[in-house]
Amino acid sequence: SPALVWFRQDLRLADNPALAALDGRPALLVYVLDDEAAGAWAHGGAQRWWLHHSLASLTADLAARGASLHLARGPATRIIPQLATAIGASEVIAGRLYEPWARSRDAAIAEALQAEGRKLSLHTSSLLHEPHRIRTGTGKPYSVYTPFSRALFALGEPPPPLPTPARIETLAHPGLPLEALELLPKRDWAREFPQHWQPGEAGAAARIKAFSLLNRYDATRNLPGIPGTSGLSPHLRFGEISPRQLWHAARAAGVTGDATFLKEILWREFAYHLLWHRPELPEAPLQQSFANFPWQPDAKLLRAWQRGQTGYPIVDAGMRQLWRSGWMHNRVRMITASFLVKHLLQPWQAGEAWFWDTLLDGDLASNAASWQWVAGCGADAAPYFRVFAPVLQGEKFDADGAYVRRWVPEIAGLPDKFLHKPWEAPEIILRGANIRLGVDYPRPVMDHGQGRARALAAYAEMRGAA
Ligand code: FAD
């Protein structure tokens, strides 16, 4: 009997265990846009842009094989059982999801299908390992990254990726046209995205091929001014490439042992491990003591940060890269996030929400785990009292200013010496570079020393109250 393959976060044909499980059976291939179930964590704006183009790409890849994708919109708890009944499917096959809302939705769907004698089969598709299978020696979930990553390395190499099925026989069942999902923004703030990205499986493959610095990753990964990281995160987010494919591609390119690049893939696994075992991760601090942290919510400061108008060039460059390209370099994510929660004392959840809406790779597990890490309230987090100095960070990781000059062009004329601290430039230098501080480019919204002292005082207050 036919089956239903439900695409979710695995919008690819290669190494897709759900497709492989068909084993020649005819199937209805389905994607459901289900904003209701996800609630506050429905796809953010940037992710919706990506999803539109990724679905277009998947549809075209399937069409080239004489196959089709059925699109639907609404609660999957209703749509999936209905479609399964309509085509007489005995089985619904999908890649497993780990978001708390998706887990409860899958449980409800499994139950509804079972009541009709059908089953829901979930495969490991977007992670290397199932988070519930990884345990410490004493049988507990991990809360510290290093032993977690060691345990994963000790499991050996992941199995080789599955090939693209030679033939996929799909059932025709009229669905919605892609436009009916209304994924593209009404106001075209995404107009620069196509310069940076090619969503879809082919785009992911091209991206790996183009990542020529992979073997110099240790030296290049912290430099935002060069393409020193893979830029694969949005492709991974939508499953246009699996972590297993990426792992083996890295090996094939000469990456050996427990290289840093592989460890980064394991940071992603760790974030999912945390989300699985601590489903409150996206909303609440994992460290209880932070529940009463004296944040000072301030709409004006938050807005200055969001718009890249803080007066700190490295912070502003990052926030503008995010807005214009839908992505930000990891080093700068750490700097901008630290600046928000420490210098500006804004709750990390406000930054997390902004990243969720603007990042093409917005990923519930990695985003939440990273924000908690920076804010010092997560598992295995950076201690809160370690406050990044934005000027020193800029001078160290963007020494030639290539990154700041690209994204904050109004200060590009400053000499390197003052590029990361325009407020220290003598008037004659500013005039020579055509900059009126406070007019063309803001003065710092917060003095570094003052911001640092205020952050430490807030931390002491929290500890005192505990
Ligand atoms: P590469 O350096 O090429 O790494 C390869 C892959 O490893 C990445 O694509 C990613 O899947 C994974 N990876 C690398 N670093 C990390 C990390 N620290 N944590 C988890 N996975 C990692 N990553 C997301 O995918 N989605 C998010 O929403 C997200 N939010 C973040 C928020 C903050 C505040 C911070 C500090 C980091 C966040 N990250 C997030 C992690 C990291 O910044 C990105 O994964 C990385 O910048 C993606 O670029 P890349 O593909 O070039 O990475």
Question: Can you give a write-up of this model?
Answer:
With 466 residues, this protein is mainly alpha-helical. It folds into three domains: 3-125, Rossmann fold (3-Layer(aba) Sandwich), CATH 3.40.50.620; 127-159 and 202-277, Serine Threonine Protein Phosphatase 5, Tetratricopeptide repeat, CATH 1.25.40.80; 288-465, DNA Cyclobutane Dipyrimidine Photolyase, subunit A, domain 3. The chain is built from 22 helices and five strands. The chain has helices spanning 17-20, 35-38, 45-63, 76-87, 100-115, 145-154, 193-196, 201-210, 217-220, 233-237, 243-252, 260-277, 299-306, 313-325, 330-343, 348-358, 364-375, 390-397, 402-407, 416-419, 427-432, 448-465; strands at residues 3-7, 27-33, 70-73, 91-95, 119-123. Strands 3-2-1-4-5 form a five-stranded parallel beta sheet. Helix 1 links the parallel strand 1 and strand 2. Helix 4 packs parallel to helix 5 (100-115), helix 6 packs across helix 12 (260-277) and helix 16 (348-358) packs antiparallel against helix 17 (364-375). The longest helix has 19 residues, at 45-63. The protein starts with a strand and ends with a helix. The chain binds flavin-adenine dinucleotide.
Low-confidence stretches: none
CATH superfamily of the largest domain: DNA Cyclobutane Dipyrimidine Photolyase, subunit A, domain 3
Number of helices: 22
Helical content band: 40-55%
Major sheet size, sense and barrel closure: 5 strands, parallel
The rounded Rg comes to 23 Å
> What is bound: which ligands?
flavin-adenine dinucleotide
- Give the overall average pLDDT: 97
N- to C-terminal separation? 60 Å
CATH architecture field of the largest domain: Orthogonal Bundle
Question: In total, how many domains does the architecture comprise?
Answer: 3
* Shape category: globular
CATH topology of the largest domain: DNA Cyclobutane Dipyrimidine Photolyase, subunit A, domain 3
Query: Which strand order spans the largest sheet, edge to edge or round the barrel?
Result: 3-2-1-4-5
> What is the CATH class designation of the largest domain?
Mainly Alpha
Structural class: mainly alpha
What percentage of the residues does DSSP assign to strands (E)?
A: 5-15%
